[in-house]
Known about the structure:
This protein is mainly beta.
Amino acid sequence: MTGQSSLDRVFLVSLLCVAAALAVLGCTGSKDCGCGPGLGEVIYFCSFESDADTLGWTGYGALWLEDDAPQSGGSRALGVEGGCIAPHASFILEPRGVGSRYSIRCWARVVHAPGRVVLRLARDFESGSVDLIVQGDDWRHYYADGDIWCPAGRSLEINVYSGGFRQPGGILLDLLEVVRVQ
């Protein structure tokens, strides 16, 4: 193999890696807009105004109520901060009486590092999920591009990830909704 062929191969592999990274970062699985769809029946809603609104939330991160909220979001929001062990916050909804499709939307902003809000079948990391990728220091409305199927008798779970192994994170969430898609 000549020196030029080896350089060409290294350049091509590097170019493919950059293209793959851009594709992953560009496809966040969530939309960030100023409005959000009004479609679907809301089956879970929380504005995180009091300590009672955090009952049932568990996880491996720090949870707190922050005196900060988006417009029309009351006066407080849920803060979630985490590191290596995840999910940093979780909430399991009651089992569904009928099978249907569900999606998630919320207002969120970054405090320390980007994060994710995920809707999936409870305790099931293999059946797929819908994700909201939280980026940016300003409050934004996020809603999932897709939805997931939840069979009758199964529960849905909301997972929040903020930061990771190398960089602890911190995000604020408010006006969190899980909707049954019609």
